Amino acid sequence: MKWVQLPLGPLQTNAYVIRNEEKECLIFDPGHEGEKLLGYLRQEGLQPLAVLLTHAHFDHIGAVDAVREAYHIPVYLHEEEAEWLADPSLNGSALFMMNRAVTAGPADELITGKANLKIGPFSLEVRETPGHSPGSVSYYMAEAGLVVSGDALFQMSIGRTDLPGGSFPELIGSIEEKLFTLPEETVVLCGHGPETTIGFEKAKNPFLT
């Protein structure tokens, strides 16, 4: 299994494409620049099976409809943020994009609580990691040894908690209970910036040591 990081949009939000040898893939957090992302998928001859959102802030959802319409695939999102896709005041675009609303159609599959997903040949464990936003989740793929953390955990940092529904104590609890309990060699694919590992963040992250 292979993955690629594609920083997209004005905030350089990381979209991730995780693929197998048969060129089937999952797309995580397609934030902006739909044509750039679609161009990569076509260039590589990939067959997307689903879009998975770690949360519904505007910089993670801007290319959702472009990908969904191109490949007719489902979009997964935690039920806590089901209304955020269509509401710029909830997803933050009304505040940060100077009235350039970012919206997407409704999610096709709503995640409720901890879940195990089987999408084609891919197996994922959904871990609820609220704190940055109330419906934030992380996707753990044990076979690949990685977790897509969205904006919960970054290299040497954590997600901001001053946005609507954010909570610093809740985020710290999410990281300690849902992410730091993963194997230390687990690669963390972060919503912004470079990847890291659970072991490195447990030892070095100044917010958590």
TrEMBL record:
User: Which Pfam families does its entry note?
Assistant: Lactamase_B (PF00753)
Gene Ontology MF terms: hydrolase activity; metal ion binding
Q: Which Gene3D superfamilies match?
A: Ribonuclease Z/Hydroxyacylglutathione hydrolase-like
Supply the alphabetized keyword list: Hydrolase, Metal-binding, Zinc
| CDD domains, per the entry | metallo-hydrolase-like_MBL-fold
Q: Which InterPro entries match?
A: MBL_Glyoxalase_II, Metallo-B-lactamas, RibonucZ/Hydroxyglut_hydro
Q: Which residues form the Metallo-beta-lactamase domain?
A: 12-192
- Co-factor(s): Zn(2+)
PANTHER family hit by this protein:
HYDROXYACYLGLUTATHIONE HYDROLASE GLOC (PTHR46233)
Q: Output this protein's name.
A: MBL fold metallo-hydrolase
Please name the source species: Ectobacillus ponti
